[in-house]
Amino acid sequence: MLETSARLLRLLGLLQTPRDWAGAELAQRLEVDVRTVRRDIQKLRDLGYPVHAVPGAAGYRLGAGTKLPPLLLDEEEAVAVAIGLRTAASGTVTGIEETSLRALAKLEQVLPSRVRHRVNLLHSVTVTVPATGPTVDPDVLTVLAAACRQHERIRFDYHSHDGTDSVRDIEPHRLVHTGRRWYLVGWDTDRRDWRTYRVDRTRPRIPTGPRFTPRQAPDVDLAGYLARGVSTAPYRYQARITLYTPAETAAERIPPTVGVIEAIDPHTCLLHTGSNSLDEIAVYVALFGFRFQIHQPPELITHIRDLATRLTDAVR
User: Which of 5, 38, 256, 257 sits 20 to 30 Å CA-CA off 20?
Assistant: First the structure.
């Protein structure tokens, strides 16, 4: 049988799993009787841990309290958290770098040597490329996430990619992270359609609006919906280009926010992309290093023919 202090820590670790625990099940795990479990539960409550009794069952659940209790992590969880904090320290959320480093320092101070060795080994052979481009205010993310979870309409000032400013009234659905950008997918009540918004371009107006009944998502594959929306729909020119390379190879070179890749066969794929500039599409596709064929738009085909003539003349 575990000593009382060790048993309390073990009990706390079990309760931190997000589920309801029957008293008999806890007793079996801790190798004690149910009466001892009840006494240990009361000791945790006396220490400030909000352990709630489950209505209608002889069970327990750890709830949210007025202060943050210590978390008990197993080795795999500790490694995952440490790696996540290192990643966050060079991420795309404004102001979170220093906080992540402080939390990482606290975690690494108490890691067993074998776990610290695993984390340091991974860190020593990993090179992180710092994020570029606009970052997101964590307070904005928090407001949008809460509105999504609580199904509350939200109004925000939005700066579009074309430079125009507007006020949007949205029924928010989900936040989507591409690795470089945060996006909000929601139902625009004025335009009566689904829209995608760059979070770094939003400035929420507080408080949020009334609650709403969630609508059916615009697509089961929300990541694919976002990729199609941000890579083609907003632009003047929408291109369809065959790439003579496997879809997996093309996906390694082309981010989902730049274009949507559709496999044709094991050796060929179709790229859907867009831009407001024909030159941008022409140069971008040419630099892939793949053989390709352009199907549309007709303006792009004509533009590349003229560009090829000028480049040929330049090297005569």
Answer: 5
Model pTM greater than 0.90? no
CB-based contacts of 16: which residues, under 8 Å, 6+ apart? 62, 71, 72
Q: By the 8 A CB rule, do 229 and 246 touch? A: no
Q: Where are the beta strands (DSSP E) in the chain?
A: 21-22, 51-54, 59-62, 154-159, 165-177, 182-188, 193-198, 202-205, 237-243, 259-265, 268-275, 292-296
* Residue 253 DSSP code: H
CA-wise closest residue to 197 among 223, 217, 218, 170: 170
| Helix (H) or strand (E) run with residue 312 in it | helix 298-314
Q: Find residue 262's DSSP bridge partners.
A: 270
> Helix or strand or coil: residue 133?
coil
pLDDT, tens digit only, all 316 positions of the chain: 457 778 888 888 888 777 888 888 999 999 999 899 999 999 888 888 888 887 656 688 888 765 666 667 778 888 888 888 877 766 667 777 777 777 877 787 778 888 888 888 877 777 666 656 677 888 888 889 889 988 999 999 999 877 889 999 999 999 888 767 788 999 999 999 999 898 999 999 988 889 999 998 888 777 777 776 666 666 788 899 999 999 999 988 888 778 888 899 999 999 988 888 899 899 888 888 889 999 999 999 999 999 999 988 888 7
C-alpha–C-alpha distance, residues 38 and 284, integer Å: 66
Residues 231 and 274: beta-carbon distance below 8 Å? yes
Alpha carbon dihedral 250, 253, 258, 261, in 10-degree steps, equals 10
Report the b/e string of 165-196 with b at 16+ CB within 10 A: eeebbbbbbbbbbeeebbbbbbbeeeeeebbb
